[in-house]
Amino acid sequence: MRVIGLTGGIASGKSTVSALFSQRGVPVIDADVIAHRLSQPPSAALDAIRAHFGPAAIDADGTLARGWMRQHVFDNAAARAQLEAIMHPRILAEIERELGELPATTPYALVAVPLLFEAPAFRARVERALVVECSETRQRQRLLARPGMTGELADAIINSQLDRSKRRELGDDIIDNDGSLDRLAEVVAQQHQRYLAWSTVAQT
Ligand code: ADP
Q: What is the pLDDT of residues 139-178, one digit of tens each?
């Protein structure tokens, strides 16, 4: 089974693309879903977070204090690195476990990781990187449609992420998502055929 990483900027359409591949029977493993699950008690990751960051990192209900943590690591590279040192190996182990549970006949699986290029261990686990991209105008428009989103926050998030030209450069395959949903479905269908052909060649 081949393993392809799926990434892209916020609101570029990663979840939409994941769902389209999934509809075609491609298993999609989502690093964000795993991270969320690992942040629910009881979990060894939460125990390690509490031990490292102290009780403020955990809410009264025992779950991760997301707001506190976001603030804490926002401008603090060392704290971010510590959080990642706790979370990333555990997320990778879960990805491995989920990959191991897939039927042996699976041609390929997608692993969706928003920070695929920022976290080398994730990039190292996948053979190819599929990048979903759209213009910044459209990205901003889609982001602003989210509840509670402001123009300022949208800009701050977009600017904190990897530069789009860098992402394009690092991607092995690019899906441009500036058209309609129907067009996106067509593009995914074509990419799926290419991946199926590639999986067959790569496995024989
Ligand atoms: P991401 O997972 O990258 O953050 P999403 O897949 O959630 O992005 O897409 C962001 C928003 O844009 C969602 O509301 C989604 O329905 C919408 N969207 C994505 N692609 C298209 C498209 N081609 N046409 C119209 N809306 C789209």
A: 999 999 999 999 999 998 899 899 999 999 999 999 999 9
pLDDT at 52: 96
Whole-number Cα distances in Å, 190 to 21, 79, 120, 194: 11, 42, 28, 6
Q: Is residue 78 part of a domain?
A: yes
Shared domain for 117 and 193, answered yes or no, is yes
- Identify the domain containing residue 188 by its residue range: 1-27+108-197
Residues 154, 191 within the same domain: yes
Q: Is the pTM of this model over 0.90?
A: yes
Query: Is the beta carbon of 180 within 6 A of some atom in ligand 1?
Result: yes
3 state DSSP class of 54: coil
Q: Which residue CA neighbors atom 5 of ligand 1 most closely?
A: 13
**Which residue, among 105, 102, 91, has the nearest Cα to 30 in the 3D structure?**
91
Does residue 204 belong to any structural domain of this protein? Answer: no
Whether the CB of 114 sits within 6 Å of ligand 1: no
Which atom of ligand 1 sits closest to the CA of residue 10? Answer: 4
